[in-house]
Amino acid sequence: MHFYMLKVLARTLVLPPFGLLILAVLGAMLIGLHRRRAGWSCLIIGLGSLWMLSTPLVAEELTRLTQVYPAFDPAKPTNAQAIVILGGGDGRFPAPEYAGQPAASLDLLERLNYGAWLSRVTHLPILVTSDFANTWEMVASLNRDFQVAPRWVDQRSRDTFANARNSAPMLRAAGVHSILLVTSSSHMLRAMREFLATGLQVTAAPIHVLGPRRYDALDFMPSAEAMLYSNRAVYELLGERVRELLVVLNLRRQQPG
Fold first, then answer.
1. Please, what are the domains in the chain?
2. In sequence order, which residues have a C-beta less than 8 Å from that of residue 16 and are 6 or more positions away?
3. What is the separation of C-alpha 165 from the centre of its chain, rounded to a whole number of angstroms?
4. Which of 23, 176, 191, 236 is the most exposed place for a label (fewest CB within 10 A)?
5. Could you tell me the pTM of the whole model?
6. Which residues contact 40 (CB under 8 A, 6 or more apart)?
7. What's the average pLDDT block by block, 10 residues per block, for the chain (257 residues)?
């Protein structure tokens, strides 16, 4: 629990916009302390980066860097035996419009929508995995909004590593060795590597896959939505580098002598 909270704190401090705001404030303080060269550098970099990361142009291009897997084609043959939907986002409980029942966040709802559609098309059962609150929202939404009941529920996972490690034994106990994995396209690379490490056969079924488009003048104007996408993209890009570093350190630790 403490390790998880430290991860959340580090994520908040490092990622935009908070990390860049800290840099800009530090710059203003240095200018006030007559360290003008360092101060102006920090201030300009902090505010300039905030502007760029808040533009749809930069946000989408960063997101494209995280997208490795194409959209899943259900018309192609697959040996998958189940669908795994990863949780995420902060839902609401109670949600007044649903008579006090839980409601999934918009991003999670998109995963559930796609997972339920895949289940109807492929006739495969669903496993949902996240923490207790998130899985409660996922189960409620699948049953209420899509009339699909998940066969397995893992409610003990707070991150992608735990999603994979907790889901694999549940699936193997049911004779499932091959899955369709549903998560956001930007998160899919890390998720695939964690699930493949468990020995499962995994086929990517990402949501929100960006297609080609032309940019216009409005794409250079900052928006809150663009900053949100930049935040997620930077998190995934940094997260994959950290995961690779941990793998290398673990391999070195296991080497004799």
1. 82-204 (3.40.50.620)
2. 49, 50, 53, 227, 230, 231, 234
3. 17
4. 23
5. 0.88
6. 27, 31
7. 70 88 95 94 96 96 94 93 94 88 92 97 97 95 96 95 97 98 95 96 96 89 94 89 74 59
